[in-house]
Amino acid sequence: MQFWLMKSEPEDVSIDDLAAAPGQTVPWTGVRNYQARNFMRDAMRIGDLAFFYHSGCAEPGIAGICEVCSEPYPDATQFVAVDPYFDPKSSPDKPRWWLRDVRFVGKSRYIPLAELRAHPELAGMRLLARGNRLSITPVTPEEWTFITQLMERQ
DNA sequence: GCCAACGTTGGC
DNA sequence: GCCAACGTTGGC
Fold first, then answer.
1. Which of A1, A10, A65, A76 is the most buried (most CB within 10 A)?
2. Domain hosting residue A84, numbered range
3. Exposure of A3 by Cβ count < 10 A (0-12 exposed, 13-18 middle, 19+ buried)?
4. Could you check: is the Cβ of residue A32 within 7 Å of any atom of nucleic acid strand C?
5. How distant is C1' of B9 from CA of A126, in Å?
């Protein structure tokens, strides 16, 4: 099994939105970066786990855990002309952007970005790399274990 | 709202 | 294929 971190703006889709969604599942729409797309389309496997990260908000951080629960399929929003994620250069017969569904696993104690940065054990984390903007990043098993233990602390 | 950092575009 | 300009991300 592999581990990931997936960013979402809570004003768009928060961990609570995911928990409240039908089947507690949402399609991970809106990824428009090739590296992130490749992670999602090619590298992920059903059953992989991911930290659900809130970005673009007052206090960014990890809010919970979700699970990859579908094979990749084209992101429908790329074909909708009025959609903010519309991509005029993509076409249904040769889709450019692919996504997977993720399912709610659990909400955790909120772990702010500042707290993640404070732990030397996480210094090498892709999320924390200088200038990182990727909305989907791999998480090592060591990082995963460390952070899930952090979740258990007060 | 600012700005650093990055990815993409497009002219050449 | 280079690289400047531009747009976007995302923390602060």
1. A65
2. 3-152
3. buried
4. yes
5. 27
* pLDDT for residue A92: 85
Q: Specify the pLDDT at position A38.
A: 94
**Degrees (nearest 5) of the Cα angle A95, A7, A62?**
155
Q: What tokens does A23 get?
A: 């089947």
User: Which CATH number does the domain housing residue A142 bear?
Assistant: 3.10.590.10
The per-residue pLDDT for range A1-25, each reduced to its tens digit, is 999 999 999 999 999 999 999 999 9
The CA–C1' separation of A33 and B7, in angstroms, is: 8
Structurally, how many domains does chain A consist of? 1
pTM comes to 0.93
